[in-house]
Amino acid sequence: MEPIRGIIFDMDGVLCLSEPFIAEAACRMFVETHRVQVTPRDFEPFVGTGEDRFLGGVAEQYGVSLVMPRDKTRTYEIYLQIIQGQLQPLPGVKQFITSCRRNKLKLAVATSADRVKLDGNLREIGLPAAKFDATVNGDEIERKKPAPDIFLLAAKRLGLKPAECLVIEDAPSGIAAAKAGGFRCLGLTTSFPAEKLPGDWVAADLENVPKELTKLFSQPAQPVAAANPPAPGLKILFVAAECAPYAKTGGLGDVVAGLAKALRRLGHDARVVLPLYGSIDRAKHGVKPAGTACVHMGNREEQWIGVQQAMMDEEVPVWFVDCERYFGRAGIYGYDDDAFRFALLSKAALQVSKDQQFYPDVVHGHDWHTALTSVFLKTWDRVLSPLSNTASVLTIHNIGYQGVVHSSLYGYLGLGPEHLTPDRFEDHGRLNLLKAGLYFSDAITTVSPTHAQEILTPSGGMGLAPFVATRRNDFFGILNGCDYEHWNPTTDLHIPARYTAADLSGKAVCKAALQQRMGLALQPAVPLFGVVSRFAQQKGFDLLARALPRALDTMDLQCVVLGAGDAGTESFFRSLTTAYPGRVGSYIGYHNDLSHLIEAGSDFFLMPSLYEPCGLNQMYSLKYGTLPIVRATGGLQDSVTNYEEATGAGTGFKFTAATAQALSDTIGWAVSTWYDRPRHIEQLRRTAMNQDFSWKGSAQKYVEVYQHAITRRRTVI
């Protein structure tokens, strides 16, 4: 029998069971829109018939005339609220998908539901659309049921013939349609008994797939051209204080997770070592024991640790350093012994790697917290060690935080006096852990090309510029990637309407919702400026405090602000909201849903940072068609293209001088463009939304840095 090269999953009844939630949402819609009380049991005869018939069948019973697509859209809106935190993958789904990936099968999802429900379901069960090679939704097909068109389109997108694909369905009509299209089928008894499923194979769920079927998943060896065979993937060990979704306070956690996943998708074996903080929910994240380890620190101290493990997003292996003494706390940072805690992490990561027999080509540390990993690689266990040839890379995410600590830490590190010198550890009688990492690392990166140049200047280097300059040939700036699985207006579940660059009507809906939520006048023609940020001096709030009142007094605009931090900045925005009722709205604190709504509903996004190593919000804004107004520094300079008034080219508005006047003038420039050149605003939006700052390109650049580090490690003594 011909091997199976691709799997096409139906969604409902195969990956998840959404029918009960759809029924609940439909009940609410009937009450809200038609004042008719229906029950979930009314929908049972229409399970597996598709949403149109699902709603229409009940409507006929109650003599209700549905208004389409309004009623269906409203049902979906209610549904997407209900499933948050409730919808779960069916048994065996993630394990089955992982097994398919190991067998190098291509994967697709094909459903008669529309794209909003498809993307919402996949994201909620932890399998966003990006994890599949193709998706097909009902909006793309004229004949939704029971014709095989959906499956045929999925196979086409996989680049396979129907005979090479297995369709997994739970409805008799779906199986019959797939077989009519020439597909082999596995029927799941989620909704119907086995005797009603005309599949080639039948199973209760994806935990119990017949062995005779899985034998067909093995791919025959493909011939490899003799010339220039592909190089084997690298082994990369990330050591970090943060990694989403386990522990995160800012961008560091997102970067570690996003880069590790992108590297694995490029064929590299990337893994992560992370502290097991007391705040990490072990049950939720599937954290399980993997052994113990003994870490030898200085002063003849032996620290026994537990080693736990989990799989991040079913892709990236993660090892946790389980040490109650140092990490069994609710917080990540802010403790008097932080330097001791992260020194242990840095050395424990290497011990865990050896004990687990994972010998990386590169160890990648992040910020001062794990800069010592580079130090230990070259000072500890050097002779006949399996890590003797392991190279080290250190990424500077924020050079303003250097790990400058009391010299009493040095004994705990177990290093000789030869390293306690101004070019390595010593810093005016204290220790500088980031500086030591710069000296010992084989390669150094920061998070944007422009910020790399800034760090080499006296002001941008914050005291470390001369030390970075000595490593100029090993120093690289790589722009961080952006997580479009969570920040994308076409799939975002946190906003009231989805939209694309081709159809921006949903953005107007989001703007009205934002104005209403923040107490602003409902004026679609007035430009709305948004701010989402920590209230810190670095972010340029001194400039905003002087520029915004001037802009509000002289221009017709609105402004919304979300953030917290500096008490004076919080007080300023509260008073600004009072002084300009209906024109300014503020939310002091953090609110994830509101941050998404501000990105979607604003027309412009303000980021006047004094310095910004990379920045992510400007990338989010671009994807949402919300034009950034930024100071030309760091990653803001690298990711935003300045507007050209003559042609309408560009993606935002930039200024250079760190002054309130420059910011005020640029706000005025944006406002005049809004009123005087509206076609340019539309052009800027569409150009912005088509920018791609995904992790794939950045990850490839990191691979080049890893190769540089490996070469240096093996050639420089």
Description:
Helix content is 38%, strand content 17%. It is of the alpha/beta class. Strand 9 (288-296) and strand 10 (302-312) form a beta hairpin. The strands form 4 sheets. A 9-stranded mixed sheet has the order 9-10-11-8-7-12-13-17-18, with helices on both faces. Strands 3-2-1-4-5-6 form a 6-stranded parallel sheet, with helices on both faces. It starts with 5 loop residues before the first strand and ends with a helix.
Main attributes?
717 residues, alpha/beta, Rossmann fold, 3 domains, nine-stranded mixed sheet, six-stranded parallel sheet, 27 helices, globular
Strand content: 15-25%
Query: In DSSP terms, counting alpha (H) and pi (I) runs of 4 or more, how many helices?
Result: 27
Which architecture name of the largest domain does CATH use? 3-Layer(aba) Sandwich
Q: Helical residue percent?
A: 25-40%
The total tally of domains equals 3
Strand order of the largest sheet: 9-10-11-8-7-12-13-17-18
Shape estimate: globular
CATH topology of the largest domain: Rossmann fold
SS-derived structural category: alpha/beta
Let me know the average pLDDT.
Answer: 91
Q: What's the level 1 CATH class of the largest domain?
A: Alpha Beta
Low-confidence stretches: 220-231
As a whole number of angstroms, the C-alpha radius of gyration is: 28 Å
The CATH superfamily of the largest domain is identified as Glycogen Phosphorylase B
Biggest sheet record: 9 strands, mixed
End-to-end distance: 57 Å
Counted beta strands:
24
